[in-house]
Write a structure and sequence with these properties.
Length: 148
């Protein structure tokens, strides 16, 4: 292995991590707000420059996903979250994993042509919660924004 390449936990459950991201995309795209919110911890946070302020906690995450679905319906647009290049970049002392991924939002208006609305980078902190992994914190960065 290249000594300058980032290390990741050798025992990271990569299939479980990938499944979390796949399921999460299908849930929000399918309007299943409460189930999408349940992919976060009870106090999980979501921050994105696309939205006016971060949201935290199950109730706020559910309401956020409900607004997303309602906005799509009102606009007559199907939006898809396409998550790729999921990489576990490290682990904290408490067992939490640090994960980065790319996220494209593709919008298809009824009878129209699909278009990429945004290309972003997700930076997540995942924790083992009960029988699976949950997102404790998500920060979204648009690719046209400078890194902080």
């Amino acid at each position: 292995m290249n000594p300058s390449a980032p290390a990741f936990p050798a025992d990271a459950p990569l299939a479980e991590i990938h499944q979390l991201y796949h399921v999460q995309s299908h849930l929000i795209d399918g309007g299943r707000a409460a189930e999408w919110a349940a992919t976060f911890t009870a106090d999980g946070t979501f921050g994105s420059p696309t939205y006016p302020r971060p949201v935290a906690g199950t109730a706020a995450l559910t309401a956020f996903a409900e607004r997303f679905a309602a906005g799509c319906a009102a606009e007559g647009v199907v939006r898809r979250h396409v998550v790729t290049n999921v990489a576990v970049t490290g682990a904290d002392d408490d067992g939490a994993l640090r994960v980065v991924a790319y996220l494209q939002i593709v919008a298809t208006p009824r009878g129209g042509t699909p278009r990429t609305e945004r290309f972003t980078t997700l930076t997540d902190r995942l924790v083992r919660d009960g029988d699976g992994w949950r997102i404790a914190a998500r920060a979204v960065r648009r690719d046209d924004a400078p890194e902080s």
